[in-house]
## 1
Amino acid sequence: MKFRPDKNQITWSITGIVTALVVMLIYYVIFKGGYIISGLHSIVDGMEGVVTGLALGYILSPILNFVEQKILEKIWEKAGAKRDENGEFRHKQLIRNIAIIITMAFVIFIIWACMYYIIPQIYQSIRDIIRNIPTYYRNIDLAINRFLESSDPTTISTVNGIADQIYVRINSYVQETVLPNISQILTMISKQAINVINSFINLIVGLIVAIYVLNSKESFCGKGKKMAYAFFREDIANEVISSSRLIHTTFTGFITGKIVDSAIIGLLCFIGCRIMDIPYYLLISVIVGIANIIPFFGPYIGGGFGFLILILISPLSALEFIVFVIILQQIDGNIIGPKILGNSTGLSSFWVIFAIMLFGSLWGFAGWILGVPVFAVIYSLISRVTDHYLDKNHLPTDEETYIDTAYIEEGKFHYLGDPNSTKYRSQKAGSSWSRIFRSKHKEEHKKSHKSKNPDVIKVQESGSVSQNTENKNTQGSDIKKDQE
């Protein structure tokens, strides 16, 4: 007789396999993220143009939706066009094509502006900084000499010792690392030049792929839902689709919001540095804007780089810049950022720092940027599973209920501070310091009370003796009764 599993057994087997795969995936993402990144890097190298197009299409999707829904459809409505029973216009594909043209024109304009105006000026600023390094060195040397002239001999010897150590280390690094590997350095520079050409070609391929992605994004979503309902039970498929929406909302809300927020901060930094006549204002503004994409630590990184560049040129400008960046980041953190990002991740400041440090250590620079939305998705999924099982056990899901909860017994909540809550160590114990000082205070109080009231001591002692006698008599009478 052959064993034929029924439908429920097959469903539970598939569910177990999928759960095991998800657990393994989470394990490898957290603890083996470097291997995943290296594997993805190999795939990306072979399909960089396609991956670039997918990423561009995903990032540009909100811009396309804004142009299509907020501008073109409004124009069609004012022109008297009617929607069908599905809420779509008759010339839906024409509207989509025009929206794609406007979106791609916007992207091409940004790329052209960067290559024609921003990148040459950044290159010129970097070249000027490198060319003026001897001047900066002389300025630092003069400043140190002025400081040493007004210092005592001990300070002079300490500074000279530090300078000698720095010189020895730099010289040994150049002699032992740079000069023996000069051929490798030149090879690496030539490879980078080739990579720049390949990146330009992949960008063109990516723009073409992005056009197809933007034109067919609803079709991709439909295929994904079709596969979910084909391979999973209805409720499981609904959860899979719901989780996909959560991932999409979290990533688009965070990444798109961060890009817009960083562009605004970079523009404000450019305007402020230009007004204050700070040197290399365009280079510094680009650094501040790009660094601002990194959550929490980004503003400090951008401000630190700008300060290091300016301190070599003009210490006064460096001081003005650092004060301006502090004010700008306060405006961003309290006004601009909350307006654009809102609570897109749902994470507190502690979990944001935790996610940056965790995924940054696993994935490097990519982890600094993507760590927060990835951890936000994991955090949200765990919260949803927790709330599911709480609902299943008929327990509340709000966090405030459990803050003062001591324990739950037979469905009834017992709270901290309640004198009736006596189980599971629910009574608050005093601290070690309070016990130490309280015991000393009690002993001193007893000693002073005894010294002041000796008669009370005698009464208490006599009372205790009489009480002990009564206890002994009672025990004796009880023994006699038992014998009788």
## 2
Amino acid sequence: MKKGIKIRLVKNFMLVILITVVIIEIMLINGVQDYYYKNLEDVLTSQIESSTSFYSRYFPSFNLNDILIEDIDIFWRYTNVQVQILSLEGDLLLDTLGVSSNEPITTSDIVKAQNEENGAWVGSVPYSSESVMAVSVPLIKDDDSIGIIRFVSSLEETNGIIKKINILLITIGIIVIIIGGIVSIILANSIVYPLERVSKIAEKMANGQLKIRNDIENDDEIGRLASTLNHMADEIIKREQIKIDFISSVSHELRTPLTSIKGWSITLQSEDVEKDLLLDGLKIIEKESDRLSFMVEELLDFSKFISGRITLDKDIFDFNSTLNFIFKQYMPRSKNDNIRFSVEVDDNVKMIVGDENRIKQVIINLLDNAFKFTDAGGSVELKAYRKEKDLILEVKDTGIGISKEDLPNIKEKFYKGSTNRANSGIGLAICDEIVKLHKGELVIESQIGKGTNIKVILPYEEELI
């Protein structure tokens, strides 16, 4: 794959360089040729105009035949190129090289001169193997054309200069292509090698080496890819640790009630079991079964939250009715545990929008912890009130409290702290997830020996009338 990408990159770079160099070479070669041809044309035009100007000044009474008969050299005196005099019909009347033609000359320069315009032409002639340039101008007398003067020059020397320059340009172009090829390989390597490193790291990660990391050198697409792979590895490690903690917690937490249930089941199978022992055993089995059922439900909820399969079923519900139900549910427990339990709800907290079952789950979980960590004679308070645009649910107890060391981690998954009263350590983690799904916040304040105050801050959504 690396070689394929590298070859494609080099090919693409070279294609761009080659096309660019070829286009520039063609433009330069044509430009050089046009430049030198234009210079030669300007020289010939200047010479021929000097000759015609000299004729107009010093021989204004001579017509074309007079010049030919008298053999006046005014048209070729100041030039060393081939000079031709033609009639207006294109017939060759005089040639300084002695060239003769039985047919009229009809090249483009002659045609322009016949139309009283200066004309230039480049091509080959039958009496020479060299390319030539011809410049023709009309010979004017008394504002009328009486003939055509034509200067013809060989292009051998000019083409030789152009050829040398073209060779130089082509050589420079080849050098540029070679340098471009080397630069293309270097650029391709600068892209391919980081990709290769990232690919190797990804292969190692796929083989289970999740602690290896990509070195991020640049903040570009490859750097972001490397960062994404690093983040992915961190998430995999995190989820793997959660899985290990989950299995460990489940196995540990389920073992205790199962052991108790099994032990009492064996005990109660005896024939001489007393009635009081039988009732105690059945109560313990019932209590441990409820505890086991609660833990299974809690673990199932946690599994759903971890996999992202929990969705809220939000609707309008009577929050007062929900709190009254919870109050009635916990009153027997408060009496049995000798713990004062009170519920206060402000009048402005009535119909709200949310997932009633999930909010109820949060409150019950928080109250369960409050009762669990509060000794007899203590108190647990549940308050609900409005603060600006938020709904505040506050659970306050006078229990044993949470240490400063445990407080920052208390909402972490499977964290139990230093107390031996904790269960699986996922209750608060689930509550925190539910609150976050409601776009709220779970705030915990506590002091050892003075109790705990937990606030659930939720955006207040009420029925729209």
